[in-house]
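pls design
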């Protein structure tokens, strides 16, 4: 009895210690006291609950879940359902957390709050929205603002990922979180300018809220604003302001935020801006998308987009095996998705395997008829790239849901015209017109009631008629023109075309139809003839027709005819033009003919070398002047001068010269030039 009393007294003291530590937030010390209590009574339910709570508060979720599973007989789901579900939620075992919550016999407010979070992570947004609405309606405490924030986050997710038009919740955007979520919802609707204004307001509210706390530094504020700035940069990117977006993205990365999800999204967006350029930067950024825990921070569509971009980056960096591996993995995860098979086809085209790429796309179109249209358009593009235009037309015509579309009709007609297959082009027009006729019959429920044709239908008929007329198919064009005229009997242009077509086929019919043309009186316009003749256009035409002479010319001048003056082009001035300096009067003469020309400046050694062959010297002009030498008698050389001339000059006296065109002299000079080349000029 004394031992039991002593144990009870010790337990009481330990419980007091646990209570005191719990109130002070010292859960590590409280855990030590709880463990001592469990040494006294290992199946104490309250002590086990306290131990689980202490472990959760210390962030030891695995250990807390282990305690719950170990003592499952004592800690039943009714006792500790919330703590178990919360541990599973924090350990990213979301499906298990949902089962734990649903198996609880009593749904407390805490479990409902956690239930909403679990549904959001599972992307069951409709159920999540209903859960938060129920919580806000049936609870009144200090956490109402947080619930409204979560509710707005659900609406934003619906708008972004499910393209649901968000309803007005009537929430007062008094916090930056609410403003941010509202901006995300607007981005999902494509209202980018309004979203940017909301983000700017959120930034302002965030600065005001955090600046009130003296312990918060400017770095802390910038870290909190990082997610807002990230959305601003995303809007800039969507608006085409890629340089501004890239600058803001890089500023956020330099801050090194702790949110791995934010870093992964920013890195992915930078990769999409880089595309096939700056691949080395993209390879660095892609590492941020592989950080631990990213898969638990982002939605499925975000993770899928990141994987698509990884595959594309592998293709752009010529990592063919990696590209095939990633795209095959994506296709196994989402067999109906278009992008994986398109990436595989693009990789095959880079490897010049176009036929294999077309076969891959054809197999996908056969397996997934719902997505066949997009795939067949890609196949047609590949056929056009290979020069198989006719095969491309066959593929396009197999897309039944697009056959009647004006864009498809225009593309097919253009391609068939390029191949000079006019019959097939006319057949395309005919099929499209018949589709609209059948559609009109369906809307009238088979009743034979005259109804005006749709603008698209009439446009197709007109284009078909014009095409047939252009290619000489007047008989075939007549039916189309008659249909158009029937729809609008006042259309003079169509009537004129119809008469022109009948004039070559049935002239009598053309005469009958010509009676429907309006008379010249009804077609006359009130025109001021004098004003028309005196107009600039009439004057110009009259000048080209011929010159006026005599009285007519004076009369026309008297009527105030204005002659067109030709504008003189301004001359171009030199770059170094100085208006203060008088221009050189000899500037129009060649340089050699100007009075101040002194010849080219040469070096000291070059002054002694003439323009002749190597080794010759430049002599005076009087010595080289053949006319002066021929007229004057030859002078005797001075003593010693003959050896110098023969050694250093190749000048031949006039009496020994041969005509300039003599072949012997030319051959000799060429030989001397070859010898001189060895001297090292």
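designed seq:
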């Amino acid at each position: 009895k004394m031992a039991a009393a002593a144990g009870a007294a010790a337990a009481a003291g330990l419980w007091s210690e646990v209570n005191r530590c719990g109130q002070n937030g010292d859960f590590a010390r409280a855990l030590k006291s709880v463990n001592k209590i469990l040494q006294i009574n290992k199946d104490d339910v309250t002590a086990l609950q306290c131990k689980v709570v202490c472990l959760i508060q210390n962030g030891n979720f695995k250990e807390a879940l282990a305690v719950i599973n170990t003592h499952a007989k004592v800690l039943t789901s009714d006792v500790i359902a919330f703590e178990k579900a919360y541990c599973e939620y924090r350990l990213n075992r979301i499906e298990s957390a949902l089962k734990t919550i649903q198996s609880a016999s009593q749904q407390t407010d805490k479990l409902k709050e956690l239930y909403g979070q679990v549904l959001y992570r599972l992307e069951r947004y409709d159920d999540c929205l209903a859960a938060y609405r129920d919580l806000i309606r049936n609870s009144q405490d200090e956490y109402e603002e947080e619930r409204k924030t979560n509710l707005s986050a659900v609406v934003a997710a619906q708008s972004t990922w499910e393209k649901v038009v968000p309803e007005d919740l009537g929430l007062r955007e008094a916090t930056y979180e609410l403003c941010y979520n509202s901006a995300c919802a607007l981005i999902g609707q494509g209202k980018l300018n309004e979203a940017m204004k909301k983000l700017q307001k959120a930034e302002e509210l965030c600065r005001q809220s955090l600046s009130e706390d003296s312990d918060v530094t400017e770095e802390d504020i910038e870290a909190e604003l990082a997610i807002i700035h990230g959305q601003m940069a995303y809007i800039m990117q969507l608006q085409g302001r890629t340089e501004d977006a890239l600058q803001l993205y890089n500023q956020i990365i330099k801050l090194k935020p702790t949110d791995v999800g934010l870093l992964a999204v920013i890195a992915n967006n930078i990769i999409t801006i880089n595309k096939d350029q700056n691949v080395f930067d993209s390879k660095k950024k892609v590492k941020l998308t592989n950080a631990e825990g990213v898969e638990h921070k982002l939605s499925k569509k975000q993770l899928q987009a990141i994987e698509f971009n990884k595959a594309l980056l592998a293709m752009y960096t010529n990592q063919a095996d990696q590209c095939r591996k990633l795209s095959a993995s994506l296709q196994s995860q989402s067999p109906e998705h278009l992008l994986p098979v398109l990436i595989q086809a693009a990789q095959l085209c880079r490897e010049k395997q176009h036929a294999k790429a077309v076969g891959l796309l054809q197999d996908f179109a056969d397996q997934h008829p719902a997505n066949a249209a997009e795939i067949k358009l890609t196949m047609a593009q590949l056929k056009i790239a290979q020069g198989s235009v006719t095969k491309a037309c066959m593929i396009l015509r197999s897309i039944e849901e697009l056959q009647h579309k004006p864009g498809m009709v225009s593309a097919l007609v253009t391609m068939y015209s390029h191949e000079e297959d006019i019959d097939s082009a006319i057949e395309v027009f005919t099929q499209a017109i018949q589709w609209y006729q059948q559609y009109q019959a369906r809307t009238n429920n088979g009743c034979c009631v005259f109804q005006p044709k749709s603008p698209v239908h009439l446009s197709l008929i007109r284009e078909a008629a014009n095409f047939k007329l252009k290619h000489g198919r007047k008989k075939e064009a007549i039916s189309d023109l008659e249909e158009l005229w029937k729809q609008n009997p006042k259309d003079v242009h169509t009537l004129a075309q119809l008469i022109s077509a009948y004039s070559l086929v049935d002239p009598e019919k053309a005469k009958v139809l010509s009676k429907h043309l309006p008379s010249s009186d009804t077609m006359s316009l009130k025109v001021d003839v004098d004003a028309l003749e005196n107009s600039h256009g009439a004057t110009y035409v009259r000048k080209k027709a011929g010159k006026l002479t005599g009285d007519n010319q004076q009369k026309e001048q008297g009527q105030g005819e204005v002659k067109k003056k030709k504008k003189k082009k301004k001359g171009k001035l030199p770059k170094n033009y100085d208006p203060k300096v008088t221009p050189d009067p000899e500037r129009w003469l060649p340089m050699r003919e100007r009075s101040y020309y002194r010849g080219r400046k040469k070096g000291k050694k070059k002054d002694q070398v003439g323009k002749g062959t190597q080794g010759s010297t430049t002599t005076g002009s009087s010595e080289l002047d053949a006319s002066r030498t021929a007229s004057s008698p030859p002078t005797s050389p001075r003593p010693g001068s003959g050896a110098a001339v023969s050694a250093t000059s190749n000048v031949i006296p006039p009496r020994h010269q041969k005509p300039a065109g003599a072949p012997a002299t030319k051959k000799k000079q060429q030989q001397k030039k070859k010898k001189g080349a060895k001297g090292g000029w």
